[in-house]
């Protein structure tokens, strides 16, 4: 009836707006970055940082936490792991919305093109967060919120196209496949 068609037009108008991802760009200047070696997951003193150190650093950068270890900071005394290097310019792009896996693969492919000329970046990352209150997590199993609703994975891609894949899930969730 007419009620059904009114509902359909309401949802089609509003869903189009809801599904359009929001994109924000920012440039981080003089950013301290961990030194990474694609074949060294554990890191080596004075040579490279480990995957865990990178993951922690990335969390600080994505949440715009200062990396200068000031004792006067009430938020964080975190500092970039050693060894590190200062990158003059780093680009941070955040896409918020409902993004299908095919689009994520497309994004990865486009990011890899960044290693073409000029070869400025040694590595780059792509982090995909599931919604904290998503009803399902990995393997279509129920997702437990508990404390933080962790539900994410992170690609670290190197210039030689080696990559690391890091995954994080909540305490009571099924591990990823």
From TrEMBL:
Domain of life: Eukaryota
Segments traversing the membrane: none
An individual GO BP term: endonucleolytic cleavage in ITS1 to separate SSU-rRNA from 5.8S rRNA and LSU-rRNA from tricistronic rRNA transcript (SSU-rRNA, 5.8S rRNA, LSU-rRNA)
A GO cellular component entry from the record: ribonuclease MRP complex
Protein's name in the database: RPP40 protein
Species in which this protein is naturally found: Daphoenositta chrysoptera
Lineage of producing organism: Eukaryota, Metazoa, Chordata, Craniata, Vertebrata
InterPro entries documented for this protein: RNase_P_Rpp40
GO MF assignments: ribonuclease MRP activity; ribonuclease P activity
